[in-house]
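REQUEST ID: PR-0412
SUBMITTED BY: lab tech R.K.
PRIORITY: routine
TASK: structure prediction, single protein chain
INPUT:
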Amino acid sequence: MFKLLIADDEQIVIEGIKNSINWSEYDIEVVGTAKNGTEALKLAKKLQPDIIISDIRMPGLDGLALIEKLKTFLPNVKVVLISAYEEFDYAKQAIRLGVNSYLSKPVKKSEVINEVCKIKMLLERKKHEEEAAIRLQQRFNENLPVLREHFLNTLIRGNTVSDLETKFQTYHIDLSLHKIGVMVCKIDHLRSINFSDEARVQFLMLRITDIINELILPASKRVTFQSYNQEIVTIFNAPDEIEFAIEELIKLAEKIKERILEETEIEVSIGIGRIYSEIKDIGLAYKEAVKALNYRLVYGDNNVLYIENVEDIEMVNYNALTNINELLENIQNILYTGKQEEVYALVDNFRQKLQSAEKIPYYYIQQLYIQLLSIILRTATEIGIGPHLIAENNNLYGTLLEIDSFSELDDWIKGILSNVCEQISAKNKLKTKHSIQKAINYIREHCQEEISLTSVANYVRLNPTYFSRFFKEETGCSFVDYLKKLRIEKAKELLRTSNLKIYEICEALGYQSVQYFSTLFKNMVGVTPQEYREKT
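STATUS: complete
OUTPUT:
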């Protein structure tokens, strides 16, 4: 119920407004009345009304002065002013100062009800909006950890984020925008760890996060969270002396690794990227930390790896390898088709690029073949081919790292590809066979209509050229010949079982020319439609 205060120096006006209207019907309670502005101000402080009806001219403190003072402690109070006719301009000025409405004396009961109810609707709307805002804020607070993690994952991927300082405040992230570094911690052989449920895995990740927060650069601002790649990522602000900060960070990472092993009996590896002066380079810092982390495949697990310590820039001719990532992407795209010869051609190109580059250490070649193997396994998994169907030994990465010759490595990866391509091809053929059968059913149901190879290919969502080739393989004839045969069979059935005239059958089967239909029928059956009907 909303509270109403009435102020007027005429008692008859007060009594009229208070008693002539049943305010409870409108969910409003008259909580007080005042004969002048000073008294009204005191009551307003005490009663905290939602709505005030006040005369403009009152002794002591007039209506406008009352409004100015009210706004200092009741900024949201709604005011209806009552004025005499000659004070009309005065009232308009008051409205410009924030008064919600005004009434001219003598006031009518209906006008008072109308104006107050309008204000009540405004108050109700505002109340609902405030309640909705509170509910949204509660939901935001409840989901803050998830939202913050999502935001931070967006940030480390290098996506442009505007107004970072505001975003940091929103998600309660205590970081400055300068001297930014990234450290990535990952459990070694996570997939091989036997956990009974996901909850225990998450409990372990949280425990590792706590250990990192306890030990890492205690005097520095930082935030630690879980990435979408099951990494534990720490973004931190480094001290001014960067070289010293890196040395200390490596030492701290060693302590973190040892503490995690001591408390959880789990081995982890930690990768550290370079420290950058601006947060806009955070995506680069993260990539470097992940890249350093991936060198554990060369240097071994349970390691701390700083990017500048593991990169051997002088040994790698990067110019010769500029299109490797694009080539790997092309291999994946062709792999989806299961076309082994085309995949082999791209892998041969991949090998030749590596061989043409000078001074590439073997461990770097292994790294690139690990990327290729990851693409093969990811593609196979997406299509529904599990690792156990690819090779008897599920530890494919371990096997790859044991191979110590380039040619053997190339032969081994092609053996994996051969198996995967064969299974993908079989799955694609099964899928295509289902699509061709679906097309056949469609043609049978719609053969009397104007249908084309393209329209049927679109129906089964296949490329027309691809559809044409597989349709012929499946049925033994082209789409056009199949449609002709089907229509002639329908014609023979109608000739045997109905009294339809030849031209009517012709039209029913979608042919525009009776002569063409008759010629086609004779060429395929050996007799004209009429002769066929007479024989049967």
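NOTES: The first helix runs from residue 11 to 19.
REVIEWED BY: pending
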